[in-house]
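Researcher: I'm preparing a figure for a lab meeting and need a structural model of a single chain. I don't have an experimental structure, so a prediction will have to do for now. The sequence is pasted below. Please return the structure as tokens so I can convert it later.
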Amino acid sequence: MKSTRISYIRFLAQAAAIAAVYTVLTLVFAPISYGESMIQVRISEMLTVLPFYTPAAIPGLFVGVVISNLFSPVGAIDVVLGSLATLLAAWLSYKMPGRWLVPIPPILVNGLVVGGMLHYVYHFPLLLSIISVTVGQVVSCYILGGFLMIALDKVGHYLFPSNG
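Model: Understood. Here is the structure written out token by token.
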């Protein structure tokens, strides 16, 4: 019973920490995280590799995106669709069979959903919107996320100890 309670508390603490870090990174780098620009690189999206290390990243990323998108100039549609896209992508990332496949769901899901949303809100050409968001996601998820994974391979066991 005590082990289950400790595991639950650890899960909540990890999720809350991930949400906080995601939000802070998004807001600190707000000029490239939001807006009418065709090219956006959300530095915080590098955290989308965290489902590989802990399932707590799924709700953590979702809550972080909800909070971050409350500041988005796109409005309520970004809070709802952007957050749901992240929830789906995080769950799919958690299910990926290999470590270097983990970034694929956030790249594809956000490329389609956020790209479509930018097309709808700002009337950017649809294909160009999807491609530009996808490119930004590749930079955040594969390049920055890849560096994060390399670092976490060395110290991740301190941050995400097994629940056993």
